[in-house]
């Protein structure tokens, strides 16, 4: 599997057009009500995870009858459906994992899903995507970032207690070897002023959020 697209059951109004992310290399995986979002988009559902307490009895029965790869869990468990599905996806060793339907609605789920990126940070290529934002976690290093006409705003949020030596080049508000602590808003709502910029840091963990207007 080159790409795995996980679709959780968050509010539908936050889920982008899934067909925009489809190609022959994508394996579509539904998480609870996310199976319905995939099917409504006319995309091929390959796997499903969850307790499926947010879909109807008829939908659940149809899913059981038509899908060979179905991981059914009790609603009383120590991990969320999304965590179980993400653990499975990482084990498949794809090139990239997309996670949709994991924002909006309940804030506890949003915060937990962002922390799942931290838990799986050994797998470096997970994107949490909704209609407004693309969220990616980064560990120390130097990265090139390309200007995107729709995702204009770029924010860097510390996830560890401190991120050390962050440098931003090619940005409207550049930085040179600055340390930022958790809770800092210094790197919120920046923009690229050239086609390709770079950011780097040498210690800590941060998430990059690319946002539309």
UniProtKB/TrEMBL annotation:
Q: Where is the Thiamin pyrophosphokinase thiamin-binding domain?
A: 141-207
Q: What is this protein called?
A: Thiamine diphosphokinase
Tell me one GO biological process term.
Answer: thiamine diphosphate biosynthetic process
Taxonomic lineage = Bacteria, Bacillati, Bacillota, Bacilli, Bacillales
Matching NCBIfam families: thi_PPkinase (TIGR01378)
| Catalytic EC class | transferase
- GO MF annotation list: ATP binding; kinase activity; thiamine binding; thiamine diphosphokinase activity
SMART domains, alphabetically?
Answer: TPK_B1_binding
- UniProt cross-references to InterPro entries, sorted A to Z: Thi_PPkinase (IPR006282), Thiamin_PyroPKinase_B1-bd (IPR007373), TPK (IPR053149), TPK_B1-bd_sf (IPR036371), TPK_catalytic (IPR007371), TPK_catalytic_sf (IPR036759)
Q: Known Gene3D superfamilies for this protein?
A: Thiamin pyrophosphokinase, catalytic domain
Which EC number(s) does UniProt give? 2.7.6.2
Keywords on record: ATP-binding, Kinase, Nucleotide-binding, Transferase
Origin organism is Metabacillus sediminilitoris
SUPFAM superfamilies, per database record:
Thiamin pyrophosphokinase, catalytic domain, Thiamin pyrophosphokinase, substrate-binding domain
């Amino acid at each position: 599997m080159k790409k795995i697209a996980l679709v959780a059951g968050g509010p539908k109004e936050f889920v982008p057009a899934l067909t925009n992310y489809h190609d022959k290399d994508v394996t579509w995986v539904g998480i609870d009500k996310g199976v319905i979002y995939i099917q409504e988009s006319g995309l091929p559902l390959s796997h499903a995870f969850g307790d499926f307490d947010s879909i109807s009895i008829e939908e659940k029965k149809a899913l059981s009858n038509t899908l060979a790869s179905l991981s059914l869990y009790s609603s009383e468990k120590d991990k969320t459906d999304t965590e179980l599905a993400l653990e499975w996806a990482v084990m498949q060793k794809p090139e990239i994992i997309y996670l949709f339907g994991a924002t909006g609605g309940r804030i506890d789920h949003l915060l937990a899903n962002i922390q799942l990126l931290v838990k799986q940070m050994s797998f470096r290529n997970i994107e949490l995507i909704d209609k407004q934002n693309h969220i990616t976690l980064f560990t120390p290093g130097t990265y090139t970032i390309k200007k995107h006409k729709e995702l204009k705003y770029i924010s860097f949020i510390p996830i560890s207690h401190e991120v050390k030596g962050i440098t931003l080049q090619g940005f409207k508000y550049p930085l040179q070897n600055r340390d930022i602590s958790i809770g800092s808003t210094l790197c919120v709502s920046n923009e690229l002023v050239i086609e390709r910029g770079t950011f780097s840091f040498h210690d800590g963990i941060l998430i990059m959020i690319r946002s539309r207007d």
